[in-house]
Specification:
Chain lengths: 362, 409
Amino acid sequence: MIDFHFDEEQQLIHETVTSFAAEQVRPAAHDAEESRTIPQSLVDQAWELGLIQGTIPEAYGGYAQEPSSAVSGAIVAEALAEGDLAIALHLLSPRLVVDPVLRLGSEEQKQELLPLYCGEKFCAGSAAVLEPSWDFSFANVGTTAKRNGGDYVLDGTKCFVPLASSAARMVVYAQDEQGVLGAFVVDTGTPGLEVGEREKNLGLNGLETFEVTLSDCRVPATRRLGSDATGMLRRSRIALSAMAVGVAKASLAYAIDYAKEREAFGVKIAQKQSIAFMLADMATETDAAQLLNWEAAWKTDQGEDAAREVALARYYVNDAVLKVADNGLQVLGGHGFVRDHPVELWLRNARGFAMFEGAASV
Amino acid sequence: MDFSLSEEAQKRIAMSRMAAEAMMRPISRQFDEEEHTDPWDFFNAMWEVSKGNQQAAESFTGSKKDKKSGPSERTLLACMQIEELAWGDAGLYLSIPNPGLGGAAIQAVGTPEQKQRFLGNFYDDKPRWGAMAITEPHFGSDSKQVATTAVRDGDEWVLNGTKIFCTAGERALVKSDGFVVVWATLDKSRGRAAIKPFIVPAGTPGVEISKVEDKHGIRASDTAVIQLDDARIPADNILGKEEIVEKGTSGFKGVMATFDSTRPIVAASGIGVARAALELVKETLAEAGIEIRYEAHPKQMTVLEKEVIDMEAQLQAARLLTYKACNMMDRGERNSREASMAKANAGAAVTHITQKCVELLGPLGYSRKLLLEKWMRDAKITDIYEGTQQINQLIIARSILGYSSSELN
């Protein structure tokens, strides 16, 4: 029966992560963006919430009782991103390795790799997905993987690879000789894998990202994960959409507070219909985006084919987050353009979801 | 969290879908073209269905006192059924003989005696209608401007004024033995607190239908102008108390609260119409061998694919907002904000979708050979009645800002 209320466990996850995001993440967001670093103490604190370990089954060192749920993942991602998107992406980076291994890995691969992400301390993960090309998509991957004896040889250039300098390994996506998209777990020290300069981007500057070049980079065939990445892509799509909803919620709430404080023509600007209606539409679209994404997540958890739901949510959410973030800035007027307020950062961050698109389409 | 349809929901959707296909679609064009005529075969058939449902509901509540009272999905089920019926034909759906909004008002604030008198034996031999009359020529959403007067004269109320935009008004008062709930003021100088709903039954002297509107869409549904000239009704036909209480909740406010359930219903009816239009477009594209690649990269999609996905996303967004408003109502939670969100969003979405669908089918879309152009006309009312999009934005804004109507108007 249709019901949009959280169950007890979901409620607990929601409350825990939401208060962590409000108390720890949001206060660190501005400095993280400006200084281009995320404090280690924050990362350590977040690790103790068990957001990663909780998705890994007990057999591999984690403490997940059930297969990880896309709905729970969406709740976590949304709440963290409402605090700050760059910090959320950093904290959830281990999932860039954990999720593909869980979904596509063999038993041996799971035994070998998953326990590494269940330790005492945060263990950064990374994925080399995007490529520096305007029309990059998973249907159009330039990085190649050629079989050579017991190895694959990887060649190509990747960009926006998060935490490449600190992660011990990353999942590299490359096309094999049959034209199939493969996922390879590559240690960052592997000869032929070169981590370039740290990138500077429109937003998300708290998150360290790098260009990564692969030239004649040899990876044992045993490090290739299973081939059908579609289901995993949908899950990552859901997590990204959830983060977009979080960004929209942040922007909406900030704009509401500001509009109730700021006066013009003798009244609070929120008392003007032009502002009030903008806020009403932002609230409605944020709600709608959240519901569409929850539906996609729920259907995925039921083991049903959620291709259409995931696509509809993605389409709506991408549009909504940009519009809401843009209007959030607009409500603050000139003050929104000044970096003392976070709304302009949320607009820059919101634009990033279109770039991730290339990593979620097939 | 659960997005699955209950068995009951699946059953009701299937039944409504059957009625829509078998009884509504075949006569859809006819009663759009022949405005102001009445599809009596359809009315009689629906009347028998409603009567059967009513009896079944009564025997059910009579036998076991709702022992396994799981969470209710009453409003949700209503919305799902209405989406199907409006998919069949929105004008005909609005014409189905039932107690309507007037009945909802009696249900919400009526005394047990009033409920018995007007709703107890409602489903009698012949179809009848209940209706609600609020709007007057000089106001719409600003409902505290009610100028129709009610004056007590012995055992009676005497009503004078003009009501417009009364859905099913003619069928309630002239074409059947129904009733209209009329809003009138006891004292214009006392504003909202003095406005009370009165039940005006068919056959009341001094009541006349002076006009039935010619409309853009939903033409099968009658929209009446009601003239009240010294119309006399029994003293106990007032809904709520006779006293003018400034902060009272029995009359005006009580009936306003019915919007919390009727707005999602309006949203659902619009969603049904837009779904019909979108389905037709997708079928037409499929026949031409065009498939929608949902998972393609946006840069690789055709404009047509993007348009279709955009419409589907908007429609599903509106539907989920509607379900959410229903879900909250069924759980006994306050849902005014969500009801307005559903209504404002659906109104805009279905208007856009149906207009876009006409565009996409070119000359076919514009022709009256297909129902598509009719659906575009039928959808537009979703954006208007039960509070325009703008009134609902105002309600949402007040809610999220924590403002009263005097702080944001």
